[in-house]
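re: ur question from earlier - yeah i can do the single chain one, its not a big deal. heres the input i used so u can compare w yours
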Amino acid sequence: MEHYLDNAATTRVCDEAAEAAVRAMTVTYGNPSSTHASGRNARALLDSSRKRIASALGCGQSELVFTSCGTESDNWAVIAGTESMRRKGLHVISSEAEHDAVRKSLDELERRGFEITRLKPDPSGSVSIDSLRSALRPDTVLVSLMLVNNETGSVTDISAAARAIKDAGSSALLHTDAVQAFLKVPFRAASLGADLISISGHKIHAPKGIGALYIRKGLRLKPYIIGGGQEDGRRAGTEALPQIAAFAAACDAAAAQFEEYSQRMYGFRDEIIRSVSSSVPSVTINGGGAPHILNISLPGLKSEVLMNYLEAREIYVSKSSACKKGGRSHVLEAMGVDPRSIDGSIRIGLSRYTTGEDVTALCEGIREAWKSLAHS
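and the output i got, formated as C-alpha cells:
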C-alpha cells in the first residue's frame, strides 16, 4: 500500500478538480475569446473560475492573473516588478531561503545591474522583520520574502514586513511567494499588505500547469508573455481553461473545510514529532510552523539512504525541494543547521488525503531504519 508523504512537492488531484477539468475539456471546450455560443460559455466558466479563486485568495477578480505555475508567477513578479521601479532605485531585498524561482530571478536582476541584499533566516527558518528594517534603503524598490518556506514550513510574517516598509516611508513593492501558504495557513490578500502574491494549483490538489499572480489594483507590470489580449493584456495566450476550472474546484473544496484540514495536518505533524522523538533520541526538527511541512534530521543517517529504505516500504518523502537536483539544502545551510544534520534531513509533506495509516507507516519506517541503518 502506497503512503504518499511528499505533498510539498505536488498533490494528488482531487475528484472535484478532475471532474471540472474533464467537463471543461469535453463540454465547455470553446475558446473564451470566441464570440459564438461555445466561446461565450467558455468565457462564463473562465469568469466564474476567476471569481472563485479570487474569493479564496481574498482579492478582486481583476487583481488575479493566470499563469502556468508558481515559478512563472515568481519570475514575473520579481523581474517585472523590479524593472517597473528602476527609476526609483536599484536595490532589492530578499532572503537566502527563497525558492529557486526567486533566487534565480534575483541572479538575473544582478546581471542587469541591480544590487541584491539576501537576508539570512533565523534558526527557526523565518526571516526577522528587524533584519528587513535594517536592510531597507532609500533606493530599495522591491522586497521578496516567502510566506511559508517550501523546505521547512517556516512562516515569515508578511503583514509585519508590509508595515515595516510602510513605516520606513519606502515606496518598495512587496512580493511574497505564497505557493506553500495558499489554503494551508490563513491569510487574505486584501489584508496581507503584499503588492504581488504568487500561488500555484498543484499544491492544493489541482493539476500541474496552472498558477496565478495577484497584482494589486493600480499596479501595472510589463506583460510576461506578449501576443494576444488575454488576461486584460497582461499575459497573452489562450487561457488553459481545463486547468483553471480545476484550480477553482480545488479552491472551493479546500476553502470549504479549511479549518478541519488544517487541524488534521497539525495533529499528524505533532504525532510524527512525538513518535520519532521517542524512538530516535538524536532527531532534530528544522524550522516549522505551517501544518503541512515537517523537516527532520537524523544525524548519522544519510537522507538518500533513509529515503530508499522508506521507498522500499512504499513510503514516499523527499530531502528538499523537488525542484532542486543534488547538493545540500541551501535553506538549511542558511539557517545554520549542522552539515551532518543537513545530510540526514528529510521533508515530510502532509495533505487533506493523509491518513493515520500513512503516519503510522512513516513512524514505524523511520524507527526501523534507525535501528537497522544508523549504526551499521
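The chain has 13 helices and twelve strands. not sure if urs matches, ping me
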